[in-house]
Amino acid sequence: MEMNRRSFFKRSIFTLGTAIIVFGFPDVAWAEKKKFKTTLTKETTTICPYCGVGCGLIVSTRDGKIINIEGDANHPINEGALCSKGSALFQVVSNERRLNSVLYRAPGSSKWEKKDWTWALEKIAKNIKDTRERTFVKEKDGKIVNRTDGIAQLGGAAHDTEECYLLSKFARALGIYWLDHQARLCHSSTVAALAASFGRGAMTNHYNDLQNSDVIMVMGSNIVEMHPMAARWIMKAKEKGAKIISSDPRFTRTSSIADIYTQFRSGTDIAYVGGMINYALQHDRIQKNYVLNSTNASFIINDKYSFNDGLFAGYNPEKRNYDKSLWKYDLDADGIPKRDNTLQDPRCVFQLMKKHYQRYDVDTVCNITGVNKEKYLEVCDLFTSTYPEDKSATWCYAMGSTQHTIGTQYIRSYSVIQLLLGNIGIAGGGINALRGESNVQASTDMALLYHILPGYLTAPSPDDVDLKTYIEKYTPKSNDKKSANWWGNYSKYITSLLKAWWGENAQKDTEGGFCYNYLPKKSGLHDHMQIFENMYKGKIEGLIAWGQNPAVGGPNSEKERKALDKLKWLVVAELWETETAQFWKRPGVNSADIKTEVFLLPACSSVEKEGSVSNSGRWAQWRYAAIHPGDADWHGDARSDLWIVDALFKGIKKEYQKTAGVFPDPILKLNWNYGTGDEIDVNKEPSAHFVASEINGYFIENGQRKGQVPGFAKLMNDGTTACGNWVYCAGYVNWSDTEGKDKTAPNYVKNELGEFSNRYAKRIAEKDEPKAQQLIAEGRAPGMNLNWSWCWPVNRRILYNRASVDSEGKPLNPKRWVIRWNPALAEGKGAFEGDVPDGPWAPSEKYPFIMCEEGVGRLFSAKPNEGPFPEHYEPLESPVLKNPFSGQMINPVIVLFHQGDALNKELNTIGTSAQFPIVATTMRVTEHWQAGAMTRNLPWQAELVPDLFVEISEELASEKSIKNGDKVAVSSARGKISAYALVTRRLEPLVIMDGTTKRKIHQVAIPWCFGYAGIATGDSANLLTPHVGDGNTNIPEYKTFLCNIKKA
Amino acid sequence: MENFSEPMGLLIDNTKCIGCRACQTACKQWNNLPAEKTTFFGGEGYQNPKDLSGSTYTLIKFHEVIENNKIKDWGFWKKQCRHCIDPACVVACPVPGVLEKKPYGPIAWDDTKCLGCPLCKEACPFNIPRFTTDINPKIRKCTMCNDRLEEGLEPACVKACPTGTAIFGKREELLKIAEKRLQEEPDKYFKYIYGKDDLDTAVLYISGFDLEKIKGYPKD
C-alpha cells in the first residue's frame, strides 16, 4: 500500500507539511533539499520478519532500490520504534550474501553449480515422485494409511500465512507425515498446555495489553531481549505503578527493568511455581467467585484417581504411559460433572490440589531451586496479591518454560495459579506465550506439524477408518446446556477443510467421506527428533526444508548433521546459504563421502512479497512487496515461497500426469489454482489473495463458489462450504458483508474473484477512533485496537473474556473492563460491547471457557500425558540425585532415545553429574535471531555480537583460572564447543540441598545462534544438547543439561 | 521548532534503557554507515564496537551495578556527541564552516573543507569527534540527525528506541521532565542531571547510578 508522506510523518514532535512551504528555509536551496535521504521515495508498509511481536515498518524505495527502512509511526504496537534487528532489516535486502540463483550440489561434489528454475523444479519433482513411488504405503495392518514413509518436510515459521497454508496442503497431498517445523521446537508444549487448561493453545492476551497489568511475572522468558517492543508496554505499565518480577537463572536485560529479581536453578520451575500455588492456597489468596464459576475447582474427581510418590494412578512402567481413563470427573445421572460448591469435599479438585501442593512448602522449594528465601516470599506475596477483582497479573514466558522434558507442565502450573487468582480473561492478565518468530503463530495454526490439521483439528490415525468414525471420536460432547462446547462443531471444520483441499472431488461418499482417506494417517510420533532419528537410520530419503535450519536449531547437532548425511536428496528454500544448505561441506567432513543431492532454491524476504503474518497476540497483519522481480534491488532468480511451492506442485502434478504412479489421486485431484495457470512461469506470481480467500472459506452452490463465509458459525458439514482454516474464518470476507463504504481503505480488495474486505489490511489504530476513545474513557482497557488488522478468532483480542464479567454481564473490574453488557444495543435485545465477547450469548447463558466441554478452566486437566496436576521432576541431565517431592526422578512418560535400539543409542549419550557437574542452559541475545542466518549474515548485527561466548560466574571463572575474554571449551556427553568466556556477576553459584547433602551448583549460559555459515560464525551450542523432549510434544530439552568447562 | 531557533535536545534516561542497541543500528541505517570488524566484545558486557569511530556515531556501554556483593542492576549508557551549548570543537576547528552549532541544537558538520586535524577531538571535553580512515580523514560524529530535524522528523535513534529511553524535545522542557523524574522517584535515580550539572549540553542524561562508575566515562 502506498502512503503519502504526510501520513508518514504524523508522529513527529512538531508537525510537518512539505518542508519548503511550512518551514520556509530562506537560505537552503531546493537543490539541497533534494539530497534528503527519503525524497521522492515510494513508501510501503510491512511487518517485521523477526520475532512474534509484529512491529510495523515503512520501506522507502526509489527506482526499484530500497533506500530506507524504519519504524511505522502509525503502528499501534511499536509506534515507530524498532529493536536492533528490525532496524537492520535494510541489510536483509541490501546484501551480497543473498542467494540470487538456484544452486545445485551433485552427490559427492564439493561445490555448488548454478542452475535455472526449470531444470531444478523438474529434477526435484522427479526425485519426489521417485521416492514416493518406492516408499508410499497404502495400508498397514489392514487399515488405510496412504502415506509416504520416505519424505520429510520442515519449515517455516517466518513464511507468510498463505505460504504456510499451501505448504501444509502440499505436504498432505503428497502423503507426507514426517512433517514438522520450528513450532515443535519452541512452543509445542505451550499449545498442549494451554489447550489442556483453557481449550485453545494460544497466547491469551496481546502485547499492548501489558500496559494494563499490575504485576508482570517474566519467568521462562527474557522478554526485553527477545521481544523488545514488549518492553515498551511493560514500561507503560510501570508508569502506572506496575511491579515487574524477573525470575531467571541469569540476570538479563529483562532483569534490569524488574523490581524483583530471583535467581534459581534451571529446570526447577515447577518447584518454584508449585510453591506459589501452595502459598496462594495456604493464604487463601484466591478469587473465590471466579474459582467457583469459571474453573473446575468444585468438580468431583472419580475415586479411581490417585497420586502417590510422584506417580498418578494408571502408570504402566513398561510402556511408559498412563491410562488416563482413571483421571475422570464423577458424573451425575445426566452425564454432567458433579460439583461441590463449598469446595470442601475431599474428592473435589480444590481439595485434591491443596493436598498435592502441600509438599511444595517454601523451604523445600528454596532448597531445591536455590532461590533466596526472602526474595521468594516477596515474589509469592506480590504475585498472589492480585487475587482481588480489581487487580491483574500476567505471566510472560517463552523458551525457558517450554523447552524442558516437563515443559507442558511448566505452563500448566502457570495456568493453575492464574486461574486461582482470577487472572484469565481479564485485561492485564492471562498467560502470554511469547512466540519468537514473526509467523510461527500462523505456521502452527496452518498445522505444519504432523499431529494436527489446520485449525487445530487432530490429524487422523489408522483406527479412524473413515470420516464418520473420525468425527465421532474427536467431537467432544457435553450434556450441560450451559456449556457452549464449541468443539461440538468439529464436523463442520473438518468437512470444510476437505472441501477446500479436494474441491468438487470431495463428495459425501468419496474415499471415506469427502476424500478423508487422502489424508496421510499418523501412527505414533513423527516430530522433529523422531524425524532425525529415522533419517539417521536411513528411513528417510528426501527432505524439503522451507526456511528452517536444523543443522543449527535442532538438538544434538552432531547426530542431526550426520542424519542429513544419509539423505538421498535435500531441497532447501532459503534467503542465505545456511548451515543446513551447506551441511555437506561443513568443517570436519569429507564431501566425497556425502552422497546427498542438494537443491538450494533462492527465496524472498518479507519485503519482497505480499501476504499476512500473525503475531503472538494472534493479530494477522497484511504486508506488501516493496520491490518486484526485475527491480534494481531484486535478487536475480529469487522467488517467493508461494511461487516455489506453486511451481513445485505443478511440476509434481505433471510427473503424475506423464507417467503412472502409486495412488496419484490426492495429487491429481487436489484443488489448487492460485491464478498462475497450469504451466510453471517465473513471471507469474500466485495470488496471496486467492489463498487468503480460500483460508477464510467460501460457500459452494452447484460446484461453484458463491461468496465468502462471513464467520465460522456459518460453516457446514454437508459439503456446501469450503474453508482452509476455521479459526481464520471472517478474516477475508465479501466487501458487501462489512460496513465498508470507503473503497480507498487499505482493506478493500478487488480481484478476479470479486470484491473483498481483507481485514488483515485494516489500519485504524484506536487512538484515531473516537468511539474507542469514548469507551476507554468509560473504563474499557486500552490497547485492543479492534480495527487494526484482524485477530483470530473473530477479532477477539482477549480470550476467555466472558470470565471477566459477573452473572449480569457487569465487569468484575469496572476500571479496566474488557467486555460489558449493554442492554440498549441490538435494538434493545442487548449485546456485549468492548472486545468481541467469547461467544455472543447473554450473560449467564453460557460458561466462559467455550472451547472446553466442561465450559470452565481446568485446574485439574486429564489431557497432558504425565498427569492432571503439574508435578516437579528433574531434567534428564540433573545435578542432583534426589527429588525432594517424590521418588520419581524424571518425567515418567518421556521417550528415552538413549534406551532405544542400537541406532537410537548412537550419539545419544546422557551425562552424569559426576562427569559433568555444571548446569548449562542455552540462551539468546536480542541482536541475533534463532539459528542466526537472518542476523549473522548482516554486517550491522555481526558487528554487535560477532562471536560465540559463554556466560560464567566470577566464582566459576576463578575456580578454573578463566579470565574474561579467554577461549574456553564447554563439553557435554554429546560434544564440545569453543567459546569466549564472558565473566559476569549476573550469574552466581547456587546452594541447593540434594536430599541431605548441600551442593554448590554452577550454571553457565550459551547462545545457541551460532554456526559455521555467515559473516559471524562460531560453534553451535546444540552440539551439546540432548535428544530428549517433553512428554506431550517432544519439544527438546534445550534449556537444561550438564556440562563441564575448562580453559582452552 | 517552527522558526528553527528554539534549542532542542535529547533526554536519555537509562533507567528505561534495555541495552538493546536499536539506537546503534538505527543510526547506522539512517546514515548508511558500514559495520566494523569486531571480536568478542569491545568493552564491558556486550559492548561493540570498542569505541566511537568514523562509522560508529553512538555506542551503548554496559555496566553491572553491584550492591551488598550481589548484582543489583545492569546499567547502560548511550555514548554520543552531547551537542554542547558552548561547543569547544567549533572554537577549536581552524576551518570555518566545517563545524556549526545550529541555534536549534545540533552541532552539524560539513566535511568538504575538513582538514582531518585532531583539534576538535582534543578540545572536546568528552572525546567524541572521530575520523574516517581513508587517506584524507574527515570528521565524523553524531549530527543529532540534523537532516531529519530539518524535515520535521526526530533523530533516528530516538524514533527507534523501544522504551522511550531517549526522547527529543525543547531543552527547557526536557530539563523540567528530568527534574520531575528525579523528584518523584528519588530512590530510582542518581541525583544528577548530566548536561546541566556538569557542562551545559543539548543531550541530557539521568541515570540509575553514577555514570562516573562506568569505565571510560566521560572520556576514555
- Distinct helical segment count of chain B: 6
Helical residue percent of chain B?
A: 10-25%
Number of strands of chain A: 41
Parts with pLDDT < 50 across at least 5 consecutive residues of chain B: none
- What proportion strand of chain A? 15-25%
How much strand content do the residues of chain B show? Answer: 15-25%
Rounded to an integer in angstroms, the radius of gyration calculated over CA atoms of chain A is 28 Å
Q: Determine and state the CATH class of the domain at 88-140 in chain B.
A: Alpha Beta
Give the number of DSSP strands of chain B.
9
Taking Cα atoms only, what radius of gyration of chain B do you get, to the nearest Å?
17 Å
Word description of this protein:
The complex is a heterodimer of chains A (1048) and B (220). Chain A has 1048 residues and is an alpha/beta fold. Chain A is 25% helix and 18% strand. In chain A, a hairpin with a 7-residue loop joins strand 4 and strand 5 (113-115). Chain B is 20% helix and 20% strand. The termini of chain B are far apart. The mean pLDDT of chain B is 95. Chain B is α+β, with helices and mostly antiparallel strands. In chain B, the strands form four sheets. Chain B has a three-stranded mixed beta sheet with strand order 8-1-9. The interface between A and B is large, with 64 and 50 residues.
